[in-house]
Amino acid sequence: MTDAGGLDELEHHAITIVREAYATLRPLAMLWSMGKDSTALLWLIRKAFYGEIPFPLVQLDTGLELDEVYAFRDRLAHEWQLDLRVESCPPEEEVDQTLPPATRAAARKTEGLRAFLQRENPRGVIVGIRRDEQATRAKERIFSPRTIGGTWDVRTQPPELWGYYATDVPHGAHVRVHPLLHWTEIDIWRYTKRENIPYVDLYLARNGIRYRSLGEKNITVPIASEAASIDAIIAELAATREPERAGRTMDHETEDSFERLRTAGYM
Amino acid sequence: MLLRCHPEALEGPVTLTKSRSGVSLSKGERQSPPIEQRPTRIVVAGHVDHGKSTLIGRLLYDLGLLHESKIADVLASSARRGTTPEWSYVLDSLQEERDQAITIDTTRLWFDHAGRRYTLIDAPGHRQFLANMLSGASEADGALLVIDAVAGIAGQTLRHAYLLRFLGIHNVVVAINKIDLLEHPKQRIAGLTRELNALLHHTPPVAVVPISASLGTNVTERSASTPWYEGPTILEAFAAIAPAAAPPQRAFRLPVQDVYRRNGERIIVGTVASGEVAAGDRLMLLPSAEHVTVERLVRWPHDPIAAAAAGESIGIVLSGDRFAGRGDTLASPASPPLFARELDVEAFWLASLPPHRADILRLKRGTQDVRAAVVDVTEIHDIESGTAVTLRLSKGTGAQHNIVRLRLRAGTPLAFDRRDDDAVNARIVLLRTGTVVGVGFTVDAAPAAPRQPDTERRRNSRRRYHAGTGGTAR
Known about the structure:
Largest sheet of chain A: 6 strands, mixed
Largest interface: A-B, 57 and 72 residues
Oligomer: heterodimer
Strand order of the largest sheet of chain A: 3-2-1-4-6-5
Strand content of chain B: 25-35%
């Protein structure tokens, strides 16, 4: 394929995936975190379905997103006429207390998702994760079947090749669908720029700091940066060896903290 | 108008910088920053414990691509488990993988070198995880086959080498690892190279590189410890693997994924599997075999495009608003696919329970998803011994992780191509009770079965034309 930086191929592939999910997994839903990845995905889904989004969007809300993130959510929900369901996550006291503190805070979203799954019983849930974000996410499939409890069994993932995806799950279980799995952080920014997709401006540097990854205020910290435009961000990323989620406290508390989150059903 | 830029066109002198202003962009209207071709995807295969993950970890370390925190993580995790630095931890991120020093599932890593982007796909070497190896290898442009210099060619070396060829991956770099453990490395390497050339005689390796992953010998830099070796390092050998070029001109095929109604018209969506399509083209729609005309190729929010090629996910509006549905196939009427109920397939068998006569499987070909009865198990090919055995001799055992040839009778006729004509449109998966049991190719229609869509249609038509459009079948 003729291609500028592989973006066309990535886009075509992702559109194929969301169309396949819609054709084979009903009811279908998508998690939207308002971050750069799931917002780029939202745009891509509108392209796949000719301007519509034929399934609901779910925001797992801890009440602790940054103010700018909530403002961005409300603006885009209005402008794009999104069918957005805000799912309130249970308080930290109700999650697994053996997890380290920041991981526990993140696990609230797992519980919020579980409540949504139990109530709505979707067969497919689209999530905007990428392989290059975090090592255990790298082990994912594009169509990743989850058990009835919503957990991830990393040992028995089905083979996935040639665009044939696992769509058979027992009643009550669901398939996570990851259209951006093969994208990198730089791909997302290049695509956001090329397609002129809106994003939260906290990603741009102000006063020497910017957010590279957006999470809850209590467990996310900005990085030192002078990148005040998408081009500057792309240049910064091309030069850095600092991992993307360095500012996400929960990933680093213990060696297995993120894997424990993910096998229990976290995104 | 579609421009093809072949990977070779992007290759220049070794000093190539990231600026590639000579490369024109697709479809003219886009102005992106100077950018490379998509990454070259290389799967790392080989027997368990021969050092695949260690080699990848070492490669990234030598290239200076590991962040201090990752290096610290590797050192700390190694110390906790009481080992010398285990570079494999860079990839083996799961707890169980680290504890058992084994790769369970496929993963991938990106790196840039000498103006090119690479994706390394780490595939597990243990036989138990062959399904994961297949998943990783299926998307690769080339392979790095890692062999333990001391242990030599082992069971999964053979199986992986065979599977690479089965999947159509022909660019193979061989790394003979752990040469630091050899007393007479030169002689041993010469002997192993002879064995390898015999094993890979169908597709000779790009290079056979003697290395030590743990010491970094001949990984990114030539080592003084192997003065007798004059070939490339691993990194240099990678440069010989190009992203798979667009396949030679093939007939148009589009498996229909879905049909959306927008503003009163039907948009047939799907991904072009082969060939090209343009507005105004006459196509054949299977299974009905009626001839249809492409009115427009629609996009959102942009204007319609004039034409599309393989790999593009598109939407087609047909003249006369013809009815179509998921599982249908749009194809070039000049060279339509085979269309038959009874067909021969060859598959890598994953399940422990072998295929048997009267077995009812599910067969997926493109977006077609049909029930198929096993009429006969004609052959089981044992990969390790290299011998073919008939079912009667083997009593059906030994199918798992080997190649089976089956004759199937599908519930409804299937559109497909012969593997020898067009391997992409011959790809299939076989399922039993929702689980993938085989992956492979359609080989041919069974000799007795009719092959002409027309003949089949009269007996098996399951679709009706959209009311009011009338039928224009030949």
